[in-house]
Amino acid sequence: MSDEILPPGGLLLGRVKMPGFAFPRVVTVRDGRVIDITSKDAPTVRDVCEKPDPAAYVASATGQDIGSAADVADNSAPDKFFAHDHLIERMKQHRKLPFPEHRLDRS
Q1: Helix, strand, or coil (residue 102)
Q2: Alpha-carbon span 45 to 56, nearest angstrom
Q3: DSSP state of 24
Q4: Ramachandran region of residue 96, left (φ > 0), alpha (ψ -120 to 50) or beta?
Q5: C-beta separation of 7 from 26 below 8 A
Q6: Which pLDDT band, with edges at 50, 70 and 90, does 74 fall under?
Q7: Angle at the Cα of 41 from the Cα atoms of 35 and 47, rounded to 5 degrees
Q8: Residue-wise over 39-65: b if at least 16 C-beta within 10 A, else e?
Q9: How many angstroms separate the CA atoms of 54 and 84, rounded?
Q10: Angle at 29 between CA 6 and CA 74, to 5 degrees
């Protein structure tokens, strides 16, 4: 699955919600593996992006391998990540809130 969603080459920065942590972990992908690069120096993606050279920081950051990109992507499937969609649908129907349709599309 990761071959379908990861761009070839490039430098990736993202967040992964992991059990045992209150906040998402800062991650990058190297050779198809997701690496947790969260640190006291850059505990959030925003902190990484505010560095003088964010790309150099991500490229050189050390971290812990948390699994293959394919496994992380499979664990982030819509049925797992969007388990609360039934609540969004109810709010949308009863309160007429303007939720974007593409956010709810699962096809």
Answers
A1: helix
A2: 14
A3: P
A4: left
A5: no
A6: confident
A7: 80
A8: eeebeebebbeeeeebeebbeebebee
A9: 34
A10: 60
Whole-model pTM: value is 0.69
Rounded to an integer, what distance in angstroms lies between the CA atom of residue 4 and that of residue 8?
A: 10
The rounded percent of the chain whose pLDDT value lies above 70 is: 66
Q: Token pair of 88, please?
A: 């969004």
Instruction: Provide CB contacts within 8 A for 32, sequence distance 6+.
Output: 2, 6, 68, 69, 70
Q: pLDDT (tens digit, 9 = 90+) per residue, 15-32? A: 998 888 889 999 999 998
Domain residue spans of the chain: 2-76, 77-107
